[in-house]
Amino acid sequence: MAIISLSLEKELLEQVDRHFGTIGVKNRSDAFRIAARAILAEGRKNDKLAGQVEGVLIAMHRKGDEEHVTEPKHDFEDVVVTQVHTNMKGGKCLEIFVFKGDAKKVLKFYNALSRAGKTEFMKLVVP
User: Fold this and answer.
1) Residue 97: in which H helix or E strand, if any?
2) Which end of the chain has fewer beta carbons closer than 10 Å to its terminal beta carbon, N or C?
3) Which domain holds residue 95?
4) Would 3 be classed as within a structural domain?
């Protein structure tokens, strides 16, 4: 088994410890293996999208990082039908993008937001 080194903000590590401790995960290595498998499963699901799709993309980011979200959105206005922006407590912003269009283009939008590195949460929902 490979050993990796990982840097996390103290608050994020505390959240990981709290969450995985609550569900009975014994150690951080197991917690990160579970998280990695969940991310990969989500990626496999997204990779299967094809043809014309519609749904929503939910993203959360820190207030002040809006340009990292709005800039990619402008590049994909042909698939983004509607955007809802809401200021949340704790200096967070919630973005909801309603999209309709080619699955490959939607996935490029998803990946562009992900690559920006400023989103703390993203979920692609396609019925």
Assistant:
1) strand 92-102
2) N
3) 51-125
4) no
